[in-house]
Amino acid sequence: MRPKVEEEFNRLQREGIIQSTEFSEWATPIVPILKPDGTVRICGDYKTTVNASTPPEHYPLPKIEDVYAQIGKSKYFSKLDLAHAYEQLELTEEAKPVTTISTHRGLFMFNRLPFGIHSAPSIFQRTIENVIAGIPKTFVYLGDILITGCTMEEHLKSLKLVLDRLKECGLRIKKEKCDFLVDHVDYLGFRISAEGLAPLAEKIRPILEAPQPRNKHELRSFLGMVNHYARFIPQAATLFHPLNYLLRQGVSWIWNHEQENAFQQAKRALTNPPVLTHFDSTQPIVLACDASPYGVGAVLSQKDKSGILKPVAYASKSLSPAERNYAQIDKEALAILFGVTRFQHYLFGQTFDIFTDHKPLLGILGENKPIPQMTSPRMQRWALKLACYRYHLRYAPGQGNLTADALSRLPLRDVPLHTPKPAELVNLMTRIDDLPITAAEIRLETRKDPELSRVLRFTSYGWPENVGSALSGFYERSSELSVEDGCLLWGARVIIPRRYRPDILRELHSGHPGNTRMKALARHYVWWPGIDHDVERIVQRCEACQQSRALPAAAPISPWQWPSRPWSRVHVDYCGPVEGYMILVIVDAYSKWIEAVPTRTASSASTMSILRSIFARMVYRIRLFLITARLLPVRNFNSS
C-alpha cells in the first residue's frame, strides 16, 4: 500500500495538483482509497475540518431516470471519461489553504479541487454542465459524458462540439475509458443501445450468485439489489410474497421451502431480463396498473410502428399495513396513482392511456367524469392529483392485464441498494498491513481466540438464540458484524483478538492522548467489548499523562460585592452594530437600571461625552467598571 501512496504523491506533485506549504490554519489527515484498477486515490478526511466548518453547496445531480428518458431514437453513442475528474478544476488562491492535508511528508495544499469536500460533486457537476450547455443529445453525470444521435451526421456534430468545448476549457479525457461511435455503450450501470436498455451482466451476477439469506438483514440486502433492477422484471411469481412476509415486524425468521422457491424465482426473473425500449414521446403511451391484497404494480409501455406494445419500465411496491386495509376499489385507485407518480417524468405533459381491471373506477377517475361527492375524501384527493395529467382511463379485464397483475402480486420492497463489500472495508484491511500487527496475524489469532472463533463461526453461518453472557456484547451487534479476509469487523472497525489488545492500546497511546482523544482514535479503527474501560485504565496508569495533568487548582470565583446604594457602581459596555449604530449600555449594579444611548462611533471621545451627560444627572459618587476599557484611557477619569 505504501509504495502506491508514494507513487500517487509523486504524480500529484509532478502535475502541480498539490504544493508544499510550511504553515496552515487547516490540516486534514489523508485517507488513501484503493481504486478497482489497483491504483490509489489520496483524499482528505474533510468531514471533521472543512465540511464541518463550511456550508455545503447544493446543485442537483441529474436523475438517472431522466437521462434514459431523453435518449429516444438514438442509434449512435459515444462516452467520454474525464481523467482525474475533480483535479481538473483549479481552486482560487483563497480556497487553496483550506484544502491543506497533513501527510508523512509534511503539509500540502491542493491547487485543484480535491476529493472529500462535500461540495465537490455539486461544483463539478455545475461546471461541466455549463461547459456542454446547449449541445443536443448530450448528458453529463459527474465525470461521465454521454453523446447520442439518431443519425451519424447528428452524432458527429454533437461529438465535435463537446470535444471542442473540452479543449477550449483545458479539460482532458482518459482515452482508455472512452467509447467513440459505437452501437451500444455501458453507462451508469446499464447497457444502452438502439434497441433499448439492459442491465450489465457483471451487475446481475452478484444477484444470481447470492447465497441464501441467513437473517432479515441479509434478506433486505438481497431485495435491495433486486429492486435496483425492478424496471426489468416483466413478471414475478406469487411465491415471492413470502420473502416480504419475513420482514414484517414481529414475524420470526423461519426459512422454509416457500421462501426458498420465492428466492430462486427472484433470481430467475433476472436470468434473462428483457431489453426495455427507449421512451419516444411521439409514440402512443400505455400505462397498465393493478392491485393485489398486498401490493400494487404498473407497467409503462409504448406501441411501435407495427402496433406491438413494448415495455419501457416496470414498477411495483408493497402495501403498508394501513394500505392493506383499504377496500379493493381504493387499492386499484392507489395502483393508478402509484404508476402515474412513479413514471411522471415520462407522462407529464403527454397524452396517455391508463388500463385498469376495476371497472367502477371509470366512473370516478375517468377523464371526463366529475368527481362524485359521495366518494371518500381519500379518493377525491387522488382524483385531484390525477387531474394534472392528460389521460384516457380504459377498462381491461384481468386476463388482458397480466403483467401489471403479476407485478402487483410480487411487489418489490423500496429498499436502497446495498453494497455487500464496500471498497472502504477492503482498503481498511489493506492498511492494517502497515501497522505493527498485520491482518494475517489478526486473522490467525482470531481463529485461536476462544471467544472470537465462536463469533467468527456464528457470523459466517448464523447465530443461535442463546449464546451466553460471554458473547452478549457480540450478539447485540450481530446484525452489524461481518467477516473480511478472515478478520471480524464491526462496521468498519476491526475486532482485535485478546492477545493483541495490549499492543493496540500501546499503539493508540503512543502520542499520550487523553481519554477522550484516545477513545475517538480507537473508534476509527478497532473495537472489542470493554475497550472504553481499557482505554481509561491505560491513561490512568500512564505516568507521563498523570504528570502533565498535575496543574495548579483553578482559583475560586469571587463574586461582586453587593453595592450599598444606587449608582455606587455601574457597568458599561457596547453592543451592536444595530442599523449603523453602536449602543452604549450602562447598568446600575444596585437597582439594575439601564441606560442605553446610540452613537455613530464607539470612540473614547464619544464614550466620555455620553458618560458625562449621564453622570451629570447623578448625585452619587460612582465606581465605574468598564468591559470594553480599551476605548477609554484611564487619564480621562477623575476618581472624585
TrEMBL record:
Residues 14-192 form the Reverse transcriptase domain. It comes from the Eukaryota. GO terms for biological process: DNA metabolic process. InterPro entries: DNA/RNA_pol_sf (IPR043502), Integrase_H2C2 (IPR041588), Retrovirus_Pol_polyprotein (IPR050951), Rev_trsase/Diguanyl_cyclase (IPR043128), RNaseH-like_sf (IPR012337), RNaseH_sf (IPR036397), RT_dom (IPR000477), RT_RNaseH_2 (IPR041577). One of its GO terms (molecular function) is nucleic acid binding. Pfam families: Integrase_H2C2, RT_RNaseH_2, RVT_1. CDD domains: RNase_HI_RT_Ty3 (cd09274), RT_LTR (cd01647). SUPFAM superfamilies: DNA/RNA polymerases (SSF56672), Ribonuclease H-like (SSF53098). PANTHER family: PROTEIN CBG26694, RIBONUCLEASE H. This is Polyprotein. It comes from Clonorchis sinensis.
